[in-house]
Amino acid sequence: MAAAQLRPPQVEEGQVKGLFTFRAGAALAAAGAILSCAATAQAQRPANLGNGAPVGQSGIQLFNFSGYLNNGAGEINPPAPTTTAGRLERVFQFLQSKGIKNVELYGYPGNPFPSNNNPTGDIPGMQALRALGDRYGIRFPGRHGALAEGRWDQEIAASKILGQDHIGEAGLGGVGGFGSYNAVLRSAEALNRLGKRSVEAGLGPAYFHNHEDEFFTRYSDNGVMKSAWEIVMERTDPRWVVAQLDIGWAVCGSLGSPVDFAFGQAEMTRLINKFQLRIISYHVKDLELDTLNDTDCQNSDQRELGLGDVNFGPMLAAAVNRSRYYFAERDPVGIGGPTNFNPFTNTANSALALKGNPAPSMKAFPQQFTSVAAGTAASANALPIVITNDGDAPMVVSNANNALQIQAENNDGGGATAADFAIVSQNCQGATLAPAVPDDPATEANEAIPAGTCTVNVGFKPTRTNYTSVARLQVNSNSDNAVERVLLSGRSTGDSLNTIGGNVDPTLGLQISPGASFGTFVPATARTYETAASALVTSTAGDATLTVTDQDTVAPGRLVNGTFALSQPLNIRALNGSQTTAQFAPLPATAGTPMTLIGYAAPTFGADTVTIGFRQAIVATEQLRTGSYTKTLTFTLSTTAP
Description:
Elements: H1 27-44, E1 58-61, H2 66-71, H3 84-97, E2 102-104, H4 123-135, H5 152-162, E3 167-169, H6 181-200, E4 206-209, H7 213-216, E5 218-221, E6 224-227, H8 228-235, E7 241-246, H9 247-252, H10 261-275, E8 279-284, E9 286-288, E10 301-303, H11 313-319, E11 325-328, H12 343-354, E12 362-363, E13 367-369, E14 382-389, E15 395-396, E16 404-407, H13 415-418, E17 421-426, E18 432-433, E19 453-460, E20 468-475, E21 485-491, E22 508-512, E23 527-539, E24 543-549, E25 560-561, E26 564-565, E27 570-575, E28 585-586, E29 595-600, E30 608-618, E31 634-641
Parallel strand pairs: 1-2, 1-11, 3-4, 4-7, 7-8, 8-11, 13-21
Antiparallel strand pairs: 5-6, 9-10, 12-14, 14-19, 15-18, 16-20, 17-19, 20-21, 22-23, 23-30, 24-29, 24-31, 25-26, 27-28, 27-30
């Protein structure tokens, strides 16, 4: 019987991963703290953990605390709370004190998750769990729920409440199992259906977890013997389905009697290199192998990370820039029951063992956009994507033009689907996001400093009707590549926006009769002379103004005869159908100063007829000279609102 089969039914497993935090009061001191912390982590990390895993990508499986959540077993600061809810909060307090941010959930006693008896789950209970996690800085990136097609929509809704970015369960049982070759193929088909639904719903892919049997069980696939696990991976769509690799159980599934850990470790490294981004997370579980008697790890004992026989180094190195999460795990129950197990001390020690050198880690949640009609502008349907540095070193976003991009796989429509989204605005390009600094209760001056953030506003602008678009916001930074991809999804409605109409060319037209004459001035006689000219004004502008200007620097505003000028100014007015009583006014006495004659608050109806009147007063004492008194005037039709 395989080890996976010896676990209690209906119980899902998890892993443990811990992070230790550091604190400094000033920027200079913080830099020093990072360096000293790196040296400490390097010195304390066991050799079989290699370079470890980044803090922002590490965490635990809550199943580590299943015994404690059941009955308080293992309390290190008695007495244990008397309720599951109280014990859960106690666990979160402890994890926060150790700098552990990511917790993969399982179906703990009294959990609020969807079930056969309650398909929608306890929604207020899930909201309360999310709030409790937020209070202690705990995030729930994944959950061992159920790959149940009948209630998949409810599982998706529950996962969104909890803040997950992918969804799955602790095995393949919910989708058909792997008891035969046909069962493996059916499981792959079901996973494709479920993953497509969850991705298009804006959550993320479906994932499946393994024990040793998925690797020990092998079938001929097109003439080649392969593990059930590898067949499932090859028969599922990379867009919709990913795997969570339980390293401890996977190496136990290797061929050989007794179990050959070296072969299993090499096999896992091969698979990580083969499937790359498709292995979304790990259960980092260490085992002490009984090399004489063990055939499938039934006689092997689980150990704190670094105290067993699994060499994680090559696998963790292969996972860099490919996998998102690393959950340290030591099952509280298993083959014979782990010895010297305490959930609190094991979690703390494993957390320190797994902790890698300081590194930034980008964190951002998937986004599902409101359904809108094709043709909707991106700015009319935009959502903010908040990017946070979840690591323990500064995160630097590239300042290059490709720092932020919308991308889509070719089988999602490639460039066409990427064009269904657009970056509307952002303040991330070239930004440096500082890591969070936790509160140090021992030093009053060192208060908590939140992690640095920036925001990319992305809009959904579908180009097709009744179409689900799936793309990603790709960020170029010094963070791990695997966490720099943010899922974007949106479905267009059956409507499509279209515009029909015609253009009105901008028009400002002004026609003025060739000239006007006062006739003959009579010397030594006081008299006022009048004349008029006609104009046609055409405007399609929102407003327009007709002005007159005397550009002449010689006697501006007055008629001139050679070097002589009349003593009285020339007066002008304009009349049309709307302006019938305008008074004459003198031309400005400063050259180039416009005088407003008439204004239009709207386009004209065709051509507007304007009568421009001129008035000139001659006094009796005016010394008139032989010749013509004239002035060339400039009439202008202008607008400020085309």
